[in-house]
Each structure stands twice: as structure tokens, then as C-alpha cells.
Amino acid sequence: MNDFFGLQANPNKDVRVASVFVLINLAWRTEQGAKQRVQMLHQLGCIDKLKALLGDSELEVRDRVRQAIDHFNMVLQE
Questions:
Q1: Measured between alpha carbons, how far is 19 from 78 in angstroms, rounded to an integer?
Q2: Which end of the chain is more exposed for a tag (fewer CB within 10 A), N or C?
Q3: Can you say how many angstroms the Cα of residue 26 is from the centroid of all Cα atoms in its chain?
Q4: Residue 36: exposed, middle, or buried by beta-carbon count in 10 A (0-12, 13-18, 19+)?
């Protein structure tokens, strides 16, 4: 997972956006096992790492991060 989280610091904006999309897909609430995946990612510190990206210089990255955090929160509240 550390290698994966390292992608979020990649200088290429498209790589950072893609890494956040991976998390969004893992947290997709209509998919079976989403809650367990989100709980595991939460325990690994994923939400804190996402929150750190809210200060990214690229708007697209910040928008995807907000979307990912929203998905995580919806799944955790179910």
C-alpha cells in the first residue's frame, strides 16, 4: 500500500488523479464488500492521506479527492 500511496505524490497530475479514482472505485457503495474495503483503507490511514491532497495545486485532483472522501463517508455511515 505504501507504493500505492506514493503515487499520490507523483509530479504528474494524471497519475495523482488516477490513484484517487482507484480509491473511488474501491469505495463504490453498490459493489459487494465495499464497506469492508473502506474500513480497511480507513485503518491504513487512507482518509488522512486523501485529506492531505486537498491542498494539491491541481483543481482536478482536489475535486476527485473530495469525491473519494464523500464516497468513503457514505459507505462508512451505512
A1: 24
A2: C
A3: 9
A4: exposed
